[in-house]
Structures are given as C-alpha cells and as structure tokens.
Design a protein that fits this description.
CATH architecture: Orthogonal Bundle
Number of helices: 6
Largest sheet: 2 strands, parallel
Strand order of the largest sheet: 1-2
Helix content: 40-55%
CATH topology: Arc Repressor Mutant, subunit A
Distance between the termini: 32 Å
Shape: globular
Order of helices and strands: HEHHEHEEHH
Length: 104
C-alpha cells in the first residue's frame, strides 16, 4: 500500500465527518475525493484512526456492508433513515455528494 500522509488521513476524516445522518458514501468516493489510489486505504484509515467517526456511513460500492459488521452497520443506518433493501443500501437515493458537502 502506498504511503499515506497525515494530510490525507485528516482529509479522509473530514470527508467522513461531513456525511450527514441519512446519507452514505462509498470507500471509493472518499478515496477519490482525498486523492488516494485505492479505496482500501480508506478502510485502513477507518480501522486505525476512525473510532470517533460515523463509520457506518461508509459502505462498499455494492451497497452491501462487509460481513463482519453488516448487522450493526445496517441497524445504525436504518436508525438514521437510510433506505435498505435486502441487506443493501440504496445508494441511488442516499449517496452523499462529498464535493458539495466539503464546500459547505
């Protein structure tokens, strides 16, 4: 994995914090907005420095949460009003526009 700078870590954290309740983003969206080369880098940042972030609002591009946290993640997202069908987040109706959120 390429080296990640402190600035990139802080940008990823800011991007994730900017996603409001009821909206989600994908690992790829965050990676693109932060200038990272791989969505897995976003996952690494969440694992190592994301305990205070709304981690549940970051999902894979498929909309289906990872098996390890799927139950808890879907529960938290449902409580925020995120539309979920058959265990999959309906990205078309709740995907956050990170560029617009960061401009606010």
């Amino acid at each position: 994995m390429p080296k990640i700078t402190d600035e990139q870590v802080e940008l990823v954290r800011a991007l994730i914090r900017s996603v409001p309740p009821g909206r989600v983003t994908t690992y790829g969206d965050v990676a693109d907005a932060a200038g990272l080369t791989n969505p897995r880098q976003v996952g690494w940042i969440l694992r190592t420095d994301g305990a205070d972030l709304p981690w549940q609002r970051v999902v894979p591009a498929s909309g289906r949460p990872s098996v390890a946290n799927a139950g808890r993640q879907l529960e938290l997202l449902r409580a925020e009003g995120v539309p979920i069908v058959d265990g999959r987040v309906r990205l078309r109706s709740c995907r956050a526009d990170l560029d617009a959120l960061m401009d606010e």
